[in-house]
Write a structure and sequence with these properties.
With 73 residues, the chain is an all-alpha fold. It is built from two helices and no strands. It has two domains: 31 residues; 35 residues. It is flat.
Length: 73
């Protein structure tokens, strides 16, 4: 109700904490590391991240395109 930090700073802090939490979960709970035994787990994780970026990126592109075309007419 009474912000202590500016909105942009609060968003940046939240994103940084979220990224740190993801790294902690991947390393300590899923035991993902760069050892040779974890190669397939790392490859599947990277593949999942790439697919997610493709889906989210295309979704944002489609929504932006629809918004632009609807507002132009």
């Amino acid at each position: 109700m009474h912000p202590v930090l500016p909105r942009a700073t609060t968003l940046l802090v939240a994103v940084l904490f979220a990224a740190a939490q993801m790294v902690v979960h991947l390393v300590y709970f899923l035991h993902m590391n760069r050892s040779s035994e974890q190669g397939w787990n790392l490859i599947s994780f990277v593949f999942t991240i790439v697919i997610l970026f493709i889906i989210v990126g295309h979704s944002v592109w489609i929504i932006w395109s629809m918004h632009y075309n609807m507002m132009a007419h």
